[in-house]
Predict the 3D structure of the following.
Amino acid sequence: MLIEVYNSVGGAAFFRRLLREWQTGGAQVAQHQAISESDYRSARGLFRRLVLRWRMYPGYAWICWRAASKRTELEPIRVVTTNPFFAPALVEKMANGSGTTINLLYDLFPEALIQAGTIRPESWTAARCAAITRFALRRCGVTVFLGERLRQYVETTYGPAQRAVVIPVGADGEPFRNAPPSLLAVSEPPQILYSGLMGSMHDVRTLVDAWALGMRDGVTWRFNASGSGYALLCREARAASSVTWGGSLNDTEWTIAMKNAHVALVTIAPGAERVVMPSKTYSALVAGQAVLAICRRESDLADLVLKHDCGWVVEPGDVIGLNRVLLEIAQDRDLLWAKRCKAFAAGHESYDMGPVSAMWLRLFSELAAKPGMAVAANVCVTSLC
């Protein structure tokens, strides 16, 4: 099978592992992207960021236009992420019936922009974004959702997808496979880690308000983050002595930090559960971290935590409930270990790139079996456009 992957920024480690699994499973893979992940991370200064934005949006639109218009001997299956959101619609339009376009719905628009306060719900921009989302659902052969509740909301709001499939983002569990959780000594305080972007989609206020009542003894916190929410958190709680503040980590530093942490903090702001399912959740599971989820109960994140009994769910604004959970984490070593073991098992059994890739390969096989779809030999072709 010829699989073309469209993603404006080169994928993170878990995404690269996913593509390798596809190749191992017999697919020929070609990538179309605007910039590498290292270029994205290293961009500093106003001019470089402006250049980056140009390459990620107008420049990437041209890459999609050119690649999808090109006719090949094999009719490809195109996996197109909503990074940026218009890419699946553009690729499907330019493909003009050739092959199959899979709309990989990472973030939902215009909801993501409305949640961030960038646009108004009744604005012309919101209407245009909604029209593009509706077009992609109707025209793309398959839409892959990251969670069942996300699927329900999108199809209720914008109409049914031509074909809907739920496949989790997953994580690369290889660095953690031989490091299962161990029981903490009584003298060792559990460490709660937040790693990654903390922006408008994330609940910060619940944590700030809980800390205002007094820091819970017996746990330590570590933040390696960036974003507007992180800036707010730093301003309001920087003086806390049991908190380690830091910026983004490289791959090696991140792996070490994940192995040393015992609980992962994952938050979703009210309303954002209709837009995102945090991918950091799956990395926490494969690393053997219990999940402290601050989110609405009616969310894919809460469903995952409760399904596997691998952590705690606290409603946004429930400061008393959060402090109660923190006391339990600090005092009950056996319970923490049990939840970490369940997280580790669920992560490697269900959300590692091995089982996640198997779900994708089954979908590819079904699509390739359609009349007119060709199957290729196992040849790896990876290109940076």
Notes: The chain has 15 helices and twelve strands. Residues 372-385 have pLDDT under 50 and may be disordered. The CA atoms of residues 89 and 132 lie 7 Å apart. The first helix runs from residue 13 to 24.
